[in-house]
Design a protein that fits this description.
single chain; mainly beta; three-stranded antiparallel beta sheet; globular
Length: 133
């Protein structure tokens, strides 16, 4: 998530008011891009081998964090079907090849706005809560 960290650090140079922010995410396994059809060994506490057939996940309630630990909600830009309210869908595959459960649309960015400040990290929850279904 180096891209997100670099973007957050850049906010320190912004003036006052609201700032638009694009947070870029990458799906990596041991530092290499995630790939459908590839077998990954020794995954999880069960130490099993897995083969990826899809690579999508929801994140919700993103918050930006200052060096002092202050939390500020990131207001997500409405952009159906990928973003609404407090929920964003990240989609790292395009449905080709071994990604048989995917579709052509991809999205690796969360877009939103926040008050200008010196943010150094981001925090979010994984999954889609029932209330946002």
């Amino acid at each position: 998530m180096r891209s997100a960290s670099a973007a957050l650090a850049a906010l320190a140079a912004c003036g006052s008011g609201e700032v638009a922010l694009d947070l870029q995410f990458s799906a990596l396994v041991n530092g290499a891009p995630l790939a459908c059809g590839r077998v990954y060994d020794h995954v999880g506490v069960s130490d099993r081998s897995v083969e990826l057939a899809d690579a999508r996940l929801y994140v919700h309630d993103p918050q930006l964090i200052t060096a002092a630990g202050t939390l500020t909600p990131l207001a997500l830009d409405p952009d159906p079907p990928f973003q609404r309210d407090r929920l964003a869908l990240l989609d790292f595959e395009d449905g080709r090849g071994q990604c048989r459960h995917g579709d052509p649309a991809t999205r690796t960015t969360i877009r939103g706005t926040a008050p200008a400040d010196d943010y150094v990290r981001i925090r979010f929850a994984l999954g889609r809560p029932h209330a946002l279904a």
